[in-house]
Amino acid sequence: MSNLDVRPAATVCGGRADVSAAPVRDLLPARTVQLGESTQVRRLLPSLGRRMVGAWCFVDHYGPDDIAEEPGMQVAPHPHIGLQTVSWLHDGEVLHRDSLGSLQTVRPRELGLMTSGRAIAHSEESPRDHARLLHGAQLWVALPDASRHIAPAFEHHPVLPEITGGGGLHATVILGDLDGAASPGTTHTPLVGADLTLAPGTDTRLPLRPDFEYAVLTMSGESHVDGVPLTPGSLLYLGCGRRDLPLRADTPASLMLLGGEPFEEQIVMWWNFVGRSADDIAKAREDWNSGDRFGEVHGYDGDRLTAPSLPATPLKPRGRER
Q: Burial code of 250-270, b = ≥16 C-beta within 10 A, e = fewer?
């Protein structure tokens, strides 16, 4: 998924200085962003309160939207460097095309994982004949310096490990590992992403790693996470130092658990690029607009996106929190 801001701000984030070593309960605000022709998203990372959770550096939540009479998601070809994109759906389908020649329809509870490495381009769109509802999340994972220049790749995993615990909790492990179950998706830093379904009357505790920092995204329904009431489209940052997480729901609810070791490196994130310096970003922008390095996405009916102008102000490191 693309960041379609016409004046995207450059963000410097990462490092351990602003990671809470103890459990916290910080509810982070979302902002509404127009994505493509007919999709609005709630942008939760980076936010006014926090820029990263582990290596997770970008979180958009969208829907559920009724797109029966609409084209649905239409995101034209755009570039990425230095990150992985994670596509996760609860309703609908998204057709992925990329400059490697990948053509894949991603469906609910299937993992679409794209590793940009040194450079890739892709598009995302609802198929011409699509389901009525579209509901999901698009997330980015920052690649560490040792992996950010690797060859690009795309993975599709239709079957993922599941955990059925007591107390009404069912979990699907999207990336990393959780409570002994490990996703087949490729990771480059210690992290976890999981889809949590809470049945009516759920009252349980989910085992966590105290060396990870965590956040929870509410996809649907109302729930209580460590005593904090959550509604759809909210992100609760939980800090580190937790060995388990209390979960409760009186009615059906669904959450996404995001976590990982605090990301030690400082990164610069602008538009659809994650680098280490302003020069990294400027070079990627120049290469994309000139047609170098990223390859072509074939089959999308429309023009590719053009990179916006770089900000006039120099980058200033601000840490993981604003």
A: eeebbbbbbbbbbbebebbbb
Pick the CATH number of 20-260 from 3.90.1300.10, 3.30.43.10, 3.40.50.2300, 2.60.120.10: 2.60.120.10
Contact call for residues 140 and 83 (beta carbons, < 8 A): yes
- Residue 70 in marked binding region: no
Domain ranges of the chain: 20-260
End-to-end CA distance of the chain: 24
| CB burial of residue 122 (10 Å; 0-12, 13-18, 19+) | buried
Q: Are strands 169-178 and 162-164 parallel, antiparallel or unpaired?
A: antiparallel
Selection from 258, 300, 254 nearest residue 64 by Cα: 254
Say what the pTM is: 0.91
pLDDT in tens, the chain (322 residues): 556 554 565 555 555 445 557 899 999 988 888 776 667 899 999 987 799 999 999 999 999 999 999 999 999 999 999 999 999 999 999 999 999 999 999 999 999 999 999 999 999 999 999 999 999 999 999 999 999 999 999 999 999 999 997 799 999 999 999 999 999 999 999 999 999 999 999 999 999 999 999 999 999 999 999 999 999 999 999 999 999 999 999 999 999 999 999 999 999 999 999 999 999 999 999 999 999 999 999 999 999 999 999 988 776 544 566 5
- Does residue 156 have a known ligand-binding role? no
- Is 96 annotated as belonging to a binding site? no
Nearest to 230 by CA among 42, 25, 45, 21: 25
